[in-house]
Amino acid sequence: FTSGCNFACPFCHNPSLVLPELFPPPISVSEVLAFLEDRRSVLDAVCITGGEPLLQPDLAPFLQSVKNLGYLIKVDHNASMPDRLAALIEKGLVDYVAIDIKNEPNSYAETVGLESFDPAVILRCLDLLRETNTPFECRTTVVKEFHDSTKLHQLAAWIYPCERYFLQKFSTNNDILSSKTLTAYSDEEMDKLLSVVSEILLFASKRG
Fold first, then answer.
1. Helix residue spans in the chain (DSSP H)
2. Is-contact 161 122, C-beta < 8 A?
3. What is the pLDDT of residue 72?
4. Are 96 and 72 in contact (CB under 8 A)?
5. Helix, strand, coil shares, percent, the chain, to 5
6. How far is 66 from 206, CA to CA, in rounded Å?
7. Other CB atoms closer than 10 Å to residue 69's CB: what's the count?
8. Per residue in 154-164, pLDDT tens?
9. CA 143, CA 11: separation in Å to the nearest integer?
10. Where is 100: in which H helix or E strand?
C-alpha cells in the first residue's frame, strides 16, 4: 500500500492513505524486499495499491527490485496517469493492471471529489493497455449516491470493449473519506445493475 492520491473519492475506504495528516508510518523498501526474499518459495506475485501508486517517484526502481526476485506484479491504478503507466509497461515492470473506473464521463469529477477533471485521460489509459497487450481489468465500486442504472449503462458504453469488468458492491463496514453517510445497493439491486452493464460488456461480473 502506498500513501497519497490525486483523487478524493468520498467513498474511498482507505482515508489514511489519502489524507496526509493520517498517513501511517512508512515501511522501508529494504524491509519489504527482505520480506519478499524470504517468501519467494511460497508467493508468486505482488500487488501495488494505495492510494495511487503511480504518484510514487521511485516506483520504477522498486518494481525492478521486486521483478529481480522473480515476482509477477499487479498494479492498481485510477487511470489518470497514462504516461507514467506507459513508462512502467515499456520497462517490463507490470504484468497486470486493475483500473478503477469511477463513473460515466459527465459524473467523473464529482465522483472523484474534484472540481474539474478531463475524463479523456481515462480512455488514453485504456487505449494504452490495449495497444501494448497488457492484461487488465476494469472495476467500478457502486454507491447509491453516485451511481444508477443509467449512469452505469453510459459507463459501459464509454469503456467498451472491455473483456474483464467488475461491479463492486460498496461496503458500509469500512471507514470512508466522506463525513456523510453513503449507501450500498442490496445484492438483488446489484444483480439488476449487472444485467444493465452486461447488455454492453458481455463478460461483466460482480464482486462483493
1. 29-38, 59-68, 82-90, 108-111, 120-131, 149-159, 187-198
2. no
3. 98
4. yes
5. 40, 15, 45
6. 31
7. 13
8. 999 999 999 99
9. 8
10. strand 96-100
Euclidean distance between CA atoms 78 and 65, whole angstroms: 23
Structure-block grid coordinates of residue 166: 467488475
Residue with cell 460498496: 170
The per-residue pLDDT for 175 is 87
In the numeric block, which cell numbers belong to residue 162?
Answer: 472491455
CA distance linking residue 69 with residue 71, whole number of Å: 6
Give the type of residue at 188. E
For residue 70, cis peptide bond before it (omega within 30 degrees of 0): no
Write out the three cell numbers for 186.
442490496
Residue 20: all three cell numbers together: 496526509
- Mean pLDDT over the full length of the chain: 97
Chain centre distance of CA 41: 28
10 Å Cβ neighbour count for 108? 21
